[in-house]
Specification:
Order of helices and strands: EHEHEHEEHEEHEHHEHHHEE
Strand content: 15-25%
Largest sheet: 11 strands, mixed
Distance between the termini: 31 Å
Number of helices: 10
Helix content: 25-40%
Radius of gyration: 19 Å
Shape: globular
Number of strands: 11
CATH architecture of the largest domain: Alpha-Beta Complex
Length: about 290
């Protein structure tokens, strides 16, 4: 199995070394194709990329996987999603993902993704647990369960929790089924991807730590008003929100989780719950006993 990982970056020298290391040093029986697309940075991001390229080519950095290729380019672009489109146009792997230049993959992330997708080849996209890093404080995230119809209809990221991009992996085939991300988008390109992918396949939740989202001042994700405007511009299905779903999410914030889970099971759960856990280092499909909605 070959992973194609894209990192879009612009003036990311403060944290990008940590991001690069979290990809390059993944250990396991797989190949990694790592592509970094820089938007003509004015800090020393490019110098860092040149340094890593030389260290990999001269074997100063030794990968812990079967093979590692590291490619980067730096040129003016039309924003983050333009860079991501460019990266995936270059990709040759089986499994795709992108991680921003201040976020991280957990150790062993690619292994748990590989085991899950090889055990269940019918799965075309999967989301692990996103944890958080703020001012050097690490907080473990939760495993969320996702309803395929609700993803397609655009509830996640509006009235339901966000699908955190940094812990999502998908097949090359699924990427080829959707259109490239509109480069006019600045914030909600991931929302476009999820609503588009859910037209074709369900998202499986993987109860394993996969990524770390770094919370810091000034990041684009804090501009929620602009994000909401972009969401509405790309939302595939409009005007079908039911009072029952809205009421459920209002109540779920005010009642114990066990009760909200019961209500979900009774009224909304899909025929098959798309959930994977690990038992004795083996991925298994099962019903989640406790989960976030």
């Amino acid at each position: 199995m070959k992973f194609s990982i894209i990192t879009p970056v612009y003036n990311g020298s403060q944290f990008i070394r940590e991001t690069l290391d979290s990809v390059i040093y993944q250990k396991g029986d797989f190949d990694i194709e790592y592509i970094v697309i820089d938007g003509d940075s004015s800090d020393n991001t490019v110098e860092i990329l040149k340094e890593y390229e030389q260290d990999i080519n001269t074997r100063k950095i030794n990968p812990k996987c079967n093979s590692l290729t590291f490619t980067w380019k730096s040129e003016k672009d039309n924003g983050m999603y333009d860079a991501i489109n460019k990266g995936f146009a270059m990709a040759t792997g089986d499994i795709y993902a992108y991680i921003n230049a201040d976020d991280l993959y957990e150790d062993n992330s690619f292994n748990v993704i590989k085991k899950s997708l090889e055990t269940f080849p019918e799965i075309e996209w999967v989301k692990g647990v996103t944890s958080y890093l703020e001012n050097a404080k690490y907080t473990k995230g939760s495993c969320y369960i996702y309803n395929q119809r609700w993803i397609y209809e655009g509830y996640y990221g509006t009235i339901a929790p966000f699908i955190q991009q940094d812990s999502v992996f998908w097949s090359k085939g699924l990427w080829n089924k959707i259109k490239p991300i509109d480069t006019n988008l600045r914030l909600a390109g991931d929302y476009y991807m999820w609503t588009s992918m859910a037209q074709h396949k369900p998202l499986y939740s993987l109860d394993a730590k996969v990524s770390i989202f770094r919370k810091r001042r000034g990041q684009l994700s804090q501009d929620m008003d602009s994000y909401r405007i972009e969401q509405e511009s790309v939302r595939i299905v409009h005007g079908i929100e039911t009072y029952a779903i809205k009421l459920f999410f209002i109540l779920s914030r005010k009642i114990p989780s066990l009760l909200s889970n019961l209500l979900y099971r009774l009224f909304f759960i899909e025929k098959n719950q798309h959930y994977i856990s690990f038992s004795n280092n083996t991925p298994i499909k099962t019903q989640a006993k406790s989960y976030k909605l």
